[in-house]
């Protein structure tokens, strides 16, 4: 019976072998397919490779073009260097000061006190002996320097010493005298007309009131305040180009109209200080705080100035920019006050000298 069971079980083995063989064949086929897919993928990658290799030259070309860019940048470099070297010449930006009105008043008055110590001899820089000479000289000072006026008026007043004399003058002769001051025809018309008004309306005397002075030909508020402050001792603010420029630099006001500048600055100071304030500011503008290149490094009020740095800050270089007595040069007056001479000021030479 045992032998029979063994015989019956033997046929099972070939079936199992066949199944295993089929499974192996299937596995081989599957692996073959996988290998084929892999080969196809590899072939695709290989086909794509030349395209990437072809793209490489473009990248290389880009690299080759880089030297041209470098060359251009190298050529541009000197210009950049020049710009950097030129930078110090540029004006430093103004520092905006945020301060109360009370703080502004304190700073403005301190500046005036400092300037009073620097220019104790400040004075009107027009030569004159009486109100008539001063009003004529002030009218003539438009569009020229006080020095040129001072060199011209001695000849004018020698020939026409009074308003009546100038009122009756031959215009052509006056024009010839005034020629060095520029705009001599217009100025001749103004001074002759002014003299006639003085002779006819004011008895040959210069009036001492603002409302009367501004009625005279060629006389505005600036000229009127020069005359009132220096010939009559009546306070006034003289807003000339120097005064307007400096008070804006100091941020006392941002007004540009002379009448508005006068009102704004006048509100910061007692009326009794107006005339000398004008002299201090104008003296400083002519000697140190110049329009084009301020001598910041030699400025006594630099710590109080929001525009410090607009000009030369190096002390040695700044000292070379000083004018008139501060720079050791003659002043503008042929006959300056004694206090100016005592301070080391040098009189200006007469017309045609040297």
Question: Care to describe what's here?
Answer:
By secondary structure, the protein is mainly alpha-helical. It has 15 helices and no strands. The chain is globular and about 55 Å long. α4 packs antiparallel against α10. The protein has helices at 2-9, 12-86, 101-118, 131-140, 146-159, 163-167, 171-178, 184-201, 210-213, 221-231, 241-249, 258-266, 274-287, 315-319, 338-342.
Keywords:
globular; 60% helix; 354 residues
Q: Work out the oligomeric state of the chains in this entry.
A: single chain
Distance between the termini: 160 Å
Count of DSSP H/I helices: 15
Category from helices, strands and their pairing:
mainly alpha
| N-to-C series of helices and strands | HHHHHHHHHHHHHHH
Kindly provide the radius of gyration, computed on alpha-carbon positions and rounded to a whole number of angstroms: 46 Å
Can you describe this structure in just a few lines?
With 354 residues, the chain is an all-alpha fold. The chain has helices spanning 2-9, 12-86, 101-118, 131-140, 146-159, 163-167, 171-178, 184-201, 210-213, 221-231, 241-249, 258-266, 274-287, 315-319, 338-342.
Question: Which helices and strands occur, and which strands form pairs?
Answer:
Blueprint: H1 2-9, H2 12-86, H3 101-118, H4 131-140, H5 146-159, H6 163-167, H7 171-178, H8 184-201, H9 210-213, H10 221-231, H11 241-249, H12 258-266, H13 274-287, H14 315-319, H15 338-342
């Amino acid at each position: 019976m045992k032998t029979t069971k063994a015989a019956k079980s033997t046929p099972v083995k070939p079936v199992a072998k066949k199944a295993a063989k089929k499974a192996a064949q299937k596995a081989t086929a599957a692996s073959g397919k996988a290998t084929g897919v892999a080969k196809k993928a590899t072939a695709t990658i290989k086909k794509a490779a030349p395209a990437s290799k072809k793209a490489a030259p473009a990248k290389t070309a880009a690299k080759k073009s880089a030297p041209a860019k470098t060359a251009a940048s190298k050529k541009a470099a000197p210009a950049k260097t020049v710009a950097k070297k030129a930078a110090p010449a540029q004006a430093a930006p103004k520092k905006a000061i945020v301060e109360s009105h009370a703080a502004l008043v304190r700073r403005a008055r301190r500046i005036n006190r400092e300037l009073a110590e620097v220019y104790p001899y400040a004075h009107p820089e027009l030569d004159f002996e009486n109100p008539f000479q001063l009003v004529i000289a002030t009218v003539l000072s438009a569009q020229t320097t006080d020095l040129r006026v001072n060199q011209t008026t001695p000849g004018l007043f020698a020939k026409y010493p009074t308003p009546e004399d100038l009122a009756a003058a031959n215009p052509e002769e006056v024009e010839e005298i005034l020629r060095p001051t520029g705009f001599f025809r217009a100025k001749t018309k103004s001074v002759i007309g002014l003299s006639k008004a003085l002779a006819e309306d004011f008895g040959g005397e210069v009036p001492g009131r603002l409302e009367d002075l501004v009625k005279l030909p060629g006389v505005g508020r600036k000229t009127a305040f020069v005359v009132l402050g220096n010939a009559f001792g009546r306070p006034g603010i003289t807003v000339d180009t120097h005064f307007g420029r400096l008070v804006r630099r100091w941020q006392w006001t941002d007004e540009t109209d002379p009448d508005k500048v006068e009102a704004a600055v006048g509100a910061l100071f007692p009326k009794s200080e107006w005339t000398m304030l004008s002299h201090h500011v104008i003296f400083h503008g002519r000697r140190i705080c110049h329009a084009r290149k301020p001598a910041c490094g030699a400025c006594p009020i630099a710590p109080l100035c929001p525009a410090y740095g607009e000009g030369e800050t190096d002390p040695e270089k700044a000292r070379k920019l000083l004018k008139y007595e501060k720079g050791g040069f003659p002043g503008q007056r042929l006959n300056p006050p004694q206090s100016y001479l005592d301070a080391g000021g040098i009189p200006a030479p007469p017309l045609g000298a040297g």
